[in-house]
Amino acid sequence: MWSNIADMEDRPEFLIDGPAGGERTIVLAHGAGAPMDSPFMDTIARGIAERDLRVVRFEFPYMRRRRTEGVRRPPDSASVLHDTWLAVIDELGGARELIIGGKSLGGRIASMLTDKVGARGLVCLGYPFHPPGRPDRLRVAHLETLRTPTLIVQGTRDALGNRDEIGGYALSPEIQIRFLEDGDHSFKPRVRSGRTEPQNLQQAVGAVAEFVHGL
Hints:
By secondary structure, the protein is of the alpha/beta class. The chain has helices at 39-49, 61-69, 78-91, 105-117, 163-166, 197-213, and strands at 15-17, 25-29, 54-58, 98-103, 121-125, 150-155, 175-180. The longest helix has 17 residues, at 197-213. The relative contact order is 0.14. The model is unreliable at 1-8 (pLDDT under 50).
């Protein structure tokens, strides 16, 4: 359901799945190019919600403007993305009982503030370890000292960080990584792999639910 928490343009709106009294609340932000109700986000959120977990989704300002203006825009500045996350956490009563994260960009921004806000856990769905084709430009410095219990779900052939590349990174011991066989950045496998996209998405859902229930 859509929440009406405020009429102000700069206040977040939420898309919520799962029971209000669910065991845990997971807050998910979208990736750079698709909204919070994309097929990927719908499948993940609804699948998690079926496992007695509450899932809250929101959008960054540039994506909200796309809805009203119909114009594709690049992501907001890092400061706006950070501030939006902080506003969402504040609206939900603080981070102490929240698991935060999201798809690609959304999860990356959450990972950069999770220790600061004291989130209960972090979930990243397809973490962008580096830009496409630029494995030399790593985005892992803050992941080396991360203190928040973290799950990263990653396709084995993700162009933004595949299994072989990730094996060489010095990541915090608080980070668990679950690989989805032959999955790309959105977990889609090749036909010849023998895997299907629904299989990988359901495996991702199961991994997230197991991780969150264990916190």
